[in-house]
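This section describes the prediction task in plain terms. A model, or a person checking by hand, is given the sequence of a single protein chain and must write out its three-dimensional structure as a string of tokens. No templates, partner chains or ligands are provided. The sample shown here is typical of the held-out split.
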Amino acid sequence: MTVITCIEDLRRLYERRVPRMFYDYAETGSWTEQTFRENSSDFNKLYFRQKVAVDLSERSTRTTMIGQDVAMPVALAPVGLTGMQCADGEIKAARAAEKFGVPFTLSTMSICSIEDVAAHTTKPFWFQLYVMRDQGFLEDIINRAKAAKCSALVLTLDLQILGQRHKDLKNGLSAPPRLTPRNIANMATKLRWGLGMLGTRRHQFGNIVGHVKGIDDASSLFQWVADQFDPRLNWSDVEKIKNLWGGKLILKGIQDVDDARRAADSGADALVVSNHGGRQLDGALSSIRALPNILDAVGDRIEVHMDGGIRSGQDVLKAVAMGAKGVYIGRAFTYGLGAMGEKGVSKALEIIQRELDLSMAFCGHRDINDVSRDILMVPKGFRGDWE
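The expected answer:
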């Protein structure tokens, strides 16, 4: 029996249990994958200050994100195709997040629909929106999120066009997967995954199929999606969507200080310092390195979150110490989901919270809300010394 003590244990199990196409979808970045790698490795450049002889009883990782009480400053990030990593994956991940007490964010490109997730949970979740050319679809999906009582809209701003991800192109990524000899051979070795998929009716993009005219097979679906990401998205559209939504708004994909100022000016409730997990512009700064300048520019005007590279509770603590109000995990919970279903997502959250709690204690703190940059040793030049 495998003893699981860290996120890397879940990743190894996930790699064995999920078809290569979907493993590669999670474990890939664009072009050379420099940004994908540095999102994680740059956390290793930050060191903790250990403190001793401090009362460490009655510790708490509880805090708030956009006014919502959370068990720790972590939300599950929107991940497309989650329901291909494990049958009914979005439902399972949402239930695990709800039980644990952290937000779950459903992707526009999910396999389980907004209505599916709402029917299988008891508390509001967050919904992530990609802006599509089809204005009727855009308005309809926002209204569907309202009807499902989603408590926040996460508007992704950094995917107007798709970055080139070599592994996805070589694998012919699709949902459901194309039945090529290579894919059939690989899926035949993933018995647990295959049995799960045979037991569910959810195999396509649930937020799109049945909600767009003329979408009746996989080829027409993928052609519609490829044509629909709107390259014309601009800040005036953000204002329109904000007004149409009318609730809590989080802007995801901010890497630049000027863009952060625009985000703060927009009246959004939070922004997410994010490079889309290194899946869009390769060669961009890691999120943890981009974070300090954005906090300095707008941290007193808008709640600042971040994602990218979070693989442990220590990463969470470093991000919070740098000033982030919360972080998002995508790959970390996906590993757990693909490895063990809902229990795996719960396990990932438990691992991260335990690491967060113990590391916070070793740094001399009992309450996550009291943590500051004082617990870190940040190397000179971490932000960069650019011409």
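For orientation: The chain has 17 helices and twelve strands.
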